Structure prediction request, 255 residues.
Amino acid sequence: MRYAAIGDSFTEGVGDELPDGSTRGWADRVAAGLAVARGEAVSYANLAVRGRLLEPIVTDQLEAALSLSPPPTLLTLNGGGNDMLRPRADMALLVHLTAQAVRRCAEAGVRLVLISGPDPSDRLPFGRAVGRRAEALTAGVAELAAAHGLTLVDVFHDVEIRHPGYWSQDRLHLNAAGHQRVAGLVLDALGEEAAAHEVRTDSAETRRLLTELRYYRQHVLPWVGRRLRGRSSGDGRTGKYVDWVPVPPAERSLT
Prediction:
């Protein structure tokens, strides 16, 4: 098994940080789960970079993944979340780009699994607009998956993960519990016995004025500032595992 993951911050693992500050994330957890299921090491690469738009994901990252030696036997793709935050996001174009990736993987003989991101719209500024765009993109990707016989892991319509206990303080990225749940959903879709249990750690989200002011100051305004300067949180970054690394089996793969 050689598993490569491409995408943005969701696949990189932002929000699921280890004590040394590095990210783990659902894709790392899936690689560990696959190793446990097979009882042997899995080769793993993660080329995802936070802030990336879908076009460089399905061109630069995909080609880099397919160029690995030996090539992957399994590849997961998620993207479009950063595009949807842009004023002129074109959902039809995002579906078209995804279709290009589908064709490219078919030509290369690599199994592609499509992943729809979780729905953050309940707690984001302009969340309704983001939710409508994400719904349209998820529907388009679902049609692609059905037409080509691909596995789609529909995290977007997972009701449980919308609970605030699965989300980081920035309300845009999942926390460790959220990434753990996504890993369970992906492994289940791959036919592994790793049910996505309810693992949330709290039961409520406060929306007091001071809390909201702090949220906008710490998270929203810096994001707006980067957009105005034409910057991205992923500038200067590369994927965390751009070549194969061995993931040995362990007793507990998702925790």
